[in-house]
Design brief:
single chain, 309 residues, alpha/beta, three-stranded mixed sheet, 9 helices
């Protein structure tokens, strides 16, 4: 098969590319290197790397016409700055619709999309969140722009699978509490944790399910989630343990902000029904593998989708 992966040098895209290349498929990745790295896919056979932006419509059209992908895996997105509405809309809306239109015009057989759990809003109406709960992305530029493009994908008529994601972490993770904890502890700075819980899933577990979707399993929207959440403090402690620090750096415990929620947890039952049993990697292994990556490459930045209070 031939796969085009946008954001293919980032955390999710590069792990998927590795699995597809390992089985002999052809892969073309496009990445603007805002958060991706060339070294994630160095010296791979059957791989074409294009360093550019998906908002370049002419380039996207040319890539599709020349490469003729059977499947598109759309992992590119803007999320570095919650106040950069221009870049969010340019990449997540304009760029993503460029990719959808090119897939339509070149008869791409399948389109894989990644959506944020923030599409349900900062205060979801149920816990765990159900797939048929209303999307209400207000409160985050990232969520608004990602949800707009999910709606365009649904409008397109393409054969698609959308994975609405829990917190995907592990090696190459540059957003969220994991890289923030690591960098601050490395710099001997104090960390704070909120009294919240989140579902953290290992990036390679997601990549394996995405490959199944590339092969034709599934249709429509799915939650990729373990169905369980853990305290942010437990994640912090896993980072401390993986870093082998001599003394325990006591974090500041902060209460939940008014615009935050105690738990964001997705109901994964449809995913289990259609894709089968998933053996989720435990949090200690997930964090340990991430720390090994950070020790070698650094964090590349520590970003959050939401404004810090």
């Amino acid at each position: 098969m031939r796969h085009l992966i946008t954001g293919g040098l980032g955390q999710i895209g590069s792990h998927i590319a590795e699995l597809l290349l390992a089985r002999g498929d052809e892969v073309c990745v496009i990445d603007n290197l805002a958060t991706g790295r060339i070294e994630h896919l160095k010296n791979k056979n059957n791989l074409k790397i294009v360093v550019d932006t998906i908002s370049n419509r002419e380039l996207i059209n040319t890539l599709f016409q020349q490469f003729k992908p059977d499947c598109v895996i759309h992992a590119a997105c803007s999320y570095k700055d919650p106040n950069d509405w221009y870049e969010d809309t340019l990449t997540n809306c304009v760029g993503a619709t460029n990719v959808i239109k090119a897939a339509l015009e070149n008869e791409t057989k399948r389109f894989i999309y990644f959506q944020t759990a923030l599409c349900y809003g900062l205060n979801p109406i149920s816990n765990p969140i159900r797939l048929n709960d209303i999307r209400n992305p207000e409160g985050s530029s990232y969520a608004i722009s990602k949800t707009a493009n999910e709606l365009y994908l649904e409008l397109s008529g393409l054969d698609y699978v959308t994975f609405r994601l829990a917190n995907v972490i592990g090696p190459r993770n540059v957003a969220g509490p994991l890289p923030i904890f690591y960098k601050r502890l490395k710099d001997e700075k104090k960390c704070f944790v909120t009294q919240t819980r989140r579902d953290f899933v290992y990036v390679q577990d997601l990549a394996k399910i995405v490959v199944k979707a590339c092969d034709g399993i599934g249709s429509g929207a799915y939650h990729f989630s373990s169905g369980k959440d853990i305290a942010i403090l437990d994640l912090y402690n896993a980072v401390v343990n993986a870093m082998n620090l001599n003394n325990y750096p006591e974090p500041e415990i902060k209460p939940i902000n008014d615009d935050d929620t105690f738990s964001i947890l997705l109901d994964p039952q449809k995913t289990f029904d259609d894709f089968g049993y998933i053996s989720f990697t435990d949090i200690d292994t997930t964090v340990r593998n991430a720390i090994e990556y950070y020790d070698k490459f650094g964090t590349l930045g520590e970003y959050t989708h939401l404004k810090l209070k």
